[in-house]
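In the laboratory, one determines a bound structure by crystallizing the protein with its ligand and collecting diffraction data. In a computational setting the workflow is compressed into a single prediction: the sequence and the ligand go in, and a structural description comes out. We illustrate the idea with flavin-adenine dinucleotide.
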Amino acid sequence: MTSVNRLRKVVIVGGGTAGWMTAAALGRFLTRDGQTSVTLVESEEIGTVGVGESTIPQINIFNRMLGLDENDFIRKTKATYKLAIEFVDWKAIGHSYHHPFGPYGIDMEAVSFHAYWLKLHAMGEDHDLGAYSLNTVGARLSKFIRPNGQANSPLGSIAYAFQFDAGLYAKYLRDYSEARGVVRQEGKIATVQQNPLNGHVASVTLESGQVVEGDLFIDCSGFRGLLIEQTLKAGYEDWSQWLLNDRAVAMPCALGGSTAPVTRATARSAGWQWRIPLQHRLGNGYAFSSAHISEDEATAFLLANLDGEPLAGPNLLKFTAGRRKKSWDKNVVAIGLSAGFMEPLESQSIHLIQVGISRLLAMFPDREFRQPDIDRYNRVMTFEYEKVRDFLILHYKATTRNDTPYWDYVREMPVPDYLAEKMAVFESYGRIFRENEELFNDTSWFAVMVGQGVVPKGYDPMVDVMSDDELRRRMAEIRSVIAKSAEVMPGHMEFIRANCDAMA
Ligand code: FAD
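The predicted complex, in structure-token form:
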């Protein structure tokens, strides 16, 4: 038996990363019995943003959900591995730190490792925090290995992500989706038709005159938000008082310099520069505030600070940090840039696509589109975006930089209440709290708090139960285990050549 209200036609508008990730997930789970069709409309003439190449470990959940073969995925997208993000010049010019994907040390006697490290720090024995993180040590040594599953070893559960070519990723997922019944429709949408009774989107008409009808429309049309904004006027919440960057200039270049499994984020006078190593090239860009540096100056600065010959001209992108007030309205769900965008910092945007898809699958509608489910989806997505936003703001707020008006503004700006509370609690006894399932966990917040120079006034009193000598001994043991584990890891490129070389 099948519900009379089951969706018959799903239409995805847009074939960028968001569109093809959504298509792949629906191809995997929805089209199997042939009762629901999935059509993706995209326009080669409009194209995609063509950036978005650095991910976080949660992408492995998505890949597993699709049943992808990792070596094949890496070869076809010319990807590399990623163990951490390296932040250069954020706290102060000349200072750098890593935000690793895996944990620091190990919790002891029911107290977080972070508390023990803070005590050691307070004792003046300021051991490099990175020395307690296999991801950081591996990244510093340009090494990589996949987790070997071994219990009681840091090598057993290494957290990692990928850096891939955005264009190849969309193509890879397109092949996957089409093999599972998703139909691609080339063409530029000229008009959108709504049902006069309830305002739902009924169909889109291409410039060719072809009409594509649907029950559910997934708006993956990018910044323009063709359905969610231009048609349904869902509204946009502007967060640019905290996240000043409103432009990015991106430019790939030839390989050169480090091949460490990291994305590097280098703070600049009016924003920051990213460097993403792939197998065949480097992805680069400068995310900046147009109120503080002109587009021409930012482009010239980027060009002068590449590690290799440019492989294409500058790609200038304009955005406003924020999110759509409702990412699901009527029968339209916005996923990807159409739902919101903060900026590329911390590589969270592709993850937010993944969250949108998984929450949509969890709340999958029939043709009744019941409001409580839609409201719930919107509440969950609001939570996800706001918690990510606050984590990003921390990188700007907690800085000692005072070399330009840009850094002066962000250092002094008032921050959202949730972040203010997080910072106050950390400044008190160095504790981190994680609300519900917010994306960035204790390790991430700790790495960035410490990395940006937030210093707590004290440490968790529970750690005093362990004697100072015992503390020194155990901490030295952890450093030694991490260092020995890193020794057995092969070089990052050596690992790729042996397992998933795209250039062979
Ligand atoms: P787009 O790529 O813009 O795709 C929109 C699609 O809609 C296209 O196929 C277009 O042809 C189609 N379309 C639009 N209008 C019409 C129409 N009228 N008719 C037919 N088709 C239409 N994310 C990360 O996770 N990590 C990163 O490192 C990262 N870096 C970034 C750097 C920058 C500078 C920017 C701007 C973003 C970055 N992101 C990053 C975000 C990431 O790029 C996006 O989340 C991702 O690419 C998804 O984009 P999209 O598919 O929503 O939009």
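Residues 14-19, 41-43, 46-49, 51-55, 188-189, 220-222, 224, 226, 248, 250, 285, 317, 319, 336-338, 344, 347, 349-350, 353 surround flavin-adenine dinucleotide (CB under 6 Å). Keep in mind that any predicted model is a hypothesis to be tested, not a measurement.
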